[in-house]
């Protein structure tokens, strides 16, 4: 483990990153990208500390959040196959929009849940993964 000064700095940084991930849902993900970059840059500094698991948790959260947001927009690709049929286009657009909105809302709830769970574990000075189970 690192010394106490490093631990306090790492603890504060971990908190800031959780806040950035929560705020990211209001900034079209821009703050999540900032947090991810910081996670990767500062990851060597937290190696061997309990905050390493928090950084891993945050990084995994970002990539899964991005994955689900990409999945949310895939149905819009079917609009290209509707041809000149306006009814088919309208139905596909409504279906794609409904799917997209549902997935995005669920992913917003999920990222907030993951951040809150991380904050709870952070506050308790516990790693995110017990027994190195990820």
UniProtKB/TrEMBL annotation:
Descriptive protein name: Transmembrane protein
Species annotation: Acinetobacter equi
Transmembrane segments: 15-41, 62-82, 88-113
Keywords: Membrane, Transmembrane, Transmembrane helix
